[in-house]
Amino acid sequence: MSYPPVYVRLSETLRITVLAFFSAIIIGSGIGLIIGGIGVLKSALEPYVVLANSIPRAIFVPLFWAYFGVGDNYRFFFALVSSTIPVIINVMYALRSVDPQLIRVASAFGASVRQTYSKLIVPTIIPAILGAARLSFNLAFGGVIIAEEFQGSFGVGDLAVNYANGFQSSDTISLYSLVVAIALIAVSVNVALLLLEKWYLRWNRP
Amino acid sequence: MIVKQSNLLQLLVLAIILIFWQVLPAFLNNSYLYVPLSSVLSSYGSLLDPSNQYLPGGLLASTYTTIYELAASFVIAATAGVLIGFALGYFKLIGEAYEPMVYLLYSIPGAILYPIDYLAFGTGPISKIIIASFLGVFPSIINTASGVRTVKQSYVKLARSVGASSFQTFWKVYLPAIASYIISGLRLTLSFVFIGVIFAELIAADNGLGWAIGNLQANFQIPGMYAVILEVIVLAYIFLEASVLVERAVIPHSRH
Fold first, then answer.
1. Is there a contact between B151 and B173 (Cβ–Cβ < 8 Å)?
2. Which of A132, A184, B27, B198 is found 20 to 30 A from B36 (Cα to Cα)?
3. What does the pLDDT read at residue B252?
4. Which residues of chain A are within 8 Å of residue B222 when distances are taken between CB atoms?
5. Are A195 and A177 in contact (CB under 8 A)?
6. Contacts of A58 in chain B (CB under 8 A)
7. Cβ contact B202–A187 (<8 Å)
8. Sequence-distant (≥ 6) Cβ neighbours of residue B20 within 8 angstroms
9. Which residues contact A20 (CB under 8 A, 6 or more apart)?
10. pLDDT, average across residues B89-96
11. What is the gyration radius of the CA atoms in chain B, in angstroms?
């Protein structure tokens, strides 16, 4: 079996992760706004969204594998689905925290729907999205890696399992260095997202 | 009994999902992948048979393995999480020194650690308990530590000044104040531990529900795969409801 070099695999994994992460932020905010904004939908769907958040997402990996088979779609859609849910939840609950009195004041002063959204709703949900961003990234990254570990792809998850099944000391050393590299990437992205969140909320610091 | 309007709406959503699951596969041109609910439910009969060739031991054995791994990891993660969290919150120096480290470890994807874990501890239950405890310990640490920091020092001083021992201070002052934090941490810990156990079983295992799902899919037993997925979702629902009930029982005045 010929291996592509590690950096090729790493960039594959990261490419899918980043794609899934940004799609999750956009789609999750959209779904969160729809569910949180429409009262009927919220009371009908809220328990299902909460349940979806506590289901071990790994059970859907074989399902996605059966649907999409080899290729990017399998990893991308699994990572997308598992990382969208925290964004939906945060946006949904953030909408509830918008003070209804402020909305009434806005409409009393003749604000259009667009103005209400841009001045009231968006400033409330952006911190919620930023709060979900770290969890969402971790789920996307972990999701891509789990999918790769389950069935053949050309990413790092697959490589790690190959190393673990190699039973040679050189493989074990490679496995450890791969894990350290992944951990460093995950930690630095998390720190960057945390700094972004702090920078955005800098006016709010006690 | 008064049924709330929102509950009716929720049941309606469930009914629509189940009806679509039953009806829609007939219109989709792929009877291998899209399986109606009735054949998923009828596959439980052969899954429960211990001599099922695709699921040695049957569904009950896999469920037992998963529950056993789940219970062991939850006890370990909960105990360690509350103790470490208390230490981080109570001793200011330890908290300042090690709390950033907890956050850094928390952000490492557990998926990449699992190959090392099963290389070291094999594919049996031990490796699942280790990875799931590791994943589940963080929410308890973080919640307990932030709970301890909210306890007013004047209460502690008051307790001390009326001669309470440190055990009494812990039992009468700290514990009631941080109970709600601990419980919501434990809820997350349960959910994380379940996630860890299932994903570890999926990647490398010799028994358990995650292993059953992967194994049935690999043997083209798609209705059986859906059946086990459905079982895990029902288990997740039971755990969620049970933890809400426990939370309500322990903290009568919680925000729910």
1. yes
2. B198
3. 64
4. 66
5. no
6. 195, 198-199, 202, 210
7. no
8. none
9. A75, A76, A79, A80, A83, A140, A143, A144
10. 87
11. 23
Q: What is the ipTM of this complex?
A: 0.82
Would you give per-residue pLDDT tens digits along chain A (206 residues)?
Answer: 456 678 888 888 899 999 999 999 999 999 998 888 887 888 888 888 888 888 888 888 888 888 888 778 888 999 999 899 999 999 888 888 777 787 778 878 877 777 777 777 778 788 888 888 888 998 999 899 988 888 877 788 888 888 888 767 778 888 888 888 889 999 999 889 988 888 888 876 55
How far is B6 from chain A, CA to nearest CA, in Å? 5
Ordered alpha helix ranges (H), A58-121:
61-68, 72-96, 100-108, 113-116
| Residue B204 DSSP symbol | S
The answer to whether A179 faces chain B, any CB pair under 8 Å, is yes
Q: Rounded to whole angstroms, what are the CA distances from A57 to A61, A144, B108, B200?
A: 8, 12, 17, 12
Report residue A163 CA to chain centroid gap.
Answer: 27
Least confident of A9-18, B134-143, B169-178: B169-178
Q: For tokens 């009930």, name the residue.
A: B245
Tokens of B229: 């997925």
With left for phi above 0 and alpha for psi between -120 and 50, is residue B208 left, alpha or beta?
left
- DSSP letters of B109-145? -HHHHHHHHHHHH-SSHHHHHHHHHHHHHHHHHHHHH
Say how many C-beta atoms besides its own lie within 10 A of residue A53's C-beta.
Answer: 16
Q: Which of A197, A156, A195, A126 is nearest to A17 (CA)?
A: A156
Q: Is the pTM for the entire model greater than 0.95?
A: no
For residues B117 and B110, give the distance between their C-alpha atoms in angstroms, rounded to a whole number.
10
Contact A182 B108 (CB under 8 A): yes
Question: Scanning the structure block, which residue is given the tokens 């048979």?
Answer: B49
- By CB neighbour count within 10 A (0-12 exposed, 13-18 middle, 19+ buried), where does B80 fall? middle
Torsion B14-B18-B19-B20 (CA) sign: positive
Would you say A19 and A76 are in contact if contact means Cβ atoms under 8 Å apart? yes
Contacts of A138 in chain B (CB under 8 A): 107, 109
pLDDT in tens, A2-59: 566 788 888 888 999 999 999 999 999 999 988 888 878 888 888 888 888 888 888 8
First to last CA, chain A: 57
Residue B25 and residue B226 in contact, taking contact as beta carbons nearer than 8 Å:
no
Gap between the Cα atoms of B241 and A8, Å rounded: 45
Nearest Cα residue to A85 out of A136, A20, A143: A136
